[in-house]
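Q: Could you fold this chain for me?
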Amino acid sequence: MNGQADMTAGTANHETMLQCFEWYLPDDHGLWNWIAAQAQDLAAAGFTMAWLPPAYKGQAGDADVGYGVYDMYDLGEFDAKGSVPTKYGSRGDYLGAIRTLRAHGLRVLADIVFNHRMGADGEERVTAHVVDVDDRTVSDDTAIERTLDTVYGFPERDGAYSTFRWNWRDFTGTDYIANDGSTGIMRFDGKQWSSNVSQERGNFDYIMGDDVDVNEPEVVKELTDWGIWYTETTGVDGFRLDAVKSIDAKFFKPWLTTMREHGNHPDFAVGEYWSGDVDELAAYLHDCGHCMTLFDVALHFRFEQASNNPDDFDLRGLSGATLLEREPDSACVFVDNHDTQPGQALESWVQPWFKPLAYAYVLLRDAQYPCVFFGDLYGVPHDRIRPMPMLNAMVWIRAHLLGDRVEEQPGDSAHSLCWCVAGEHPVCVVLNTSDTPIEREVTSEALASRTLVDICHAGAPAEMGKEGHGTLTCPAGTCSIYIDAADEQEMRDAIA
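A: Sure. Below is the predicted structure, expressed as structure tokens.
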């Protein structure tokens, strides 16, 4: 990682991403305008990247969170699926939000959902094999002809931007409901699941809806043509790539290479490969030629485990078997997101008491690409979840004070970690998962003769000696973040 870099000239240039949505935002077409209004404050707080939700029309119209993709050319412009705008607003609102965010220095990431299409406009007769849902490599030998919803004509758009029409030949398979109400998966006759995908359930190419066949040449051309149109139209700076575990890894490198030749030449991509197995994550990075970073799902699960079972969790192994440990240059670290929040299919919510510890770990060490969740910054009213205390302060410290020379402090234990980040504005962090307060001895030349203040808890300042030695305290089951007293006053003024 970056712990050995010299930090004598000031603070490092740290990226911090904000996921600008959560699952239960109201269907009021207001997000694009609201996030644009926050742009100045977000930039001042220290955010450098804004991940916006999918901007195109979903099968549920303006009630769709964005992942039930219907028409990727409709950014809230056509009266389709019951509405003109999407859940988040109109095409004009979306483009305006991107311009505003970029004008305030934030790079904008677009959420790209290539895996499937839903909400077809028409039916056709298709010959398909029924697939074993628990082992997708196994299917019935006999193909059966069925009437399926696999035609996408986009009548409301009427050929604007693209005349491409989707039919079963552009898909690999679909799901179905049998006469008895049971559900299943079908693979179209003559089609095969992609090879370079997760091997979960034998092969995890299929997730939902009509499964886009990224090995079909005409589909690759259409997705590339769409990408060029979208990149030039929106001016985004990068991409969040949805469900990459189910999309052939070989598809992305040429697609991203082409995108970087257009618009603002987007140069950053992060993929969502939902697995806690770091070997799987590393294998996908290899297979895609390291053309993207990946969300560190393995680290997220470590946070969840520690928050649910602190007595038996050894903090000294917090980053063990994660991308942050294995491939730090390709790790986008996060605590929670829209899929892990309560009530969602991948629910794995990090308990509130542990959230400050987890965010201190991703924001105030040496992770290159931390992502802050909207629901942690602003709360989730749907579930009466309040904003996480001190999160704004951590983001500000990362942007304005944090250096990049991490100095691990001796004395770590199963329930306590301590490190200092040296530089002109030193930052010291103590994590404590025990049920009693602790004291940690720290030593760093950067701390010599300084007065440190714990921004998380009221108490007496910690006076550091001439050699940079002193004692830091931390209450039970929480974290303490110490910064210079002068920096603390500046921080309070900035985030007031």
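A (continued): The first helix runs from residue 31 to 37.
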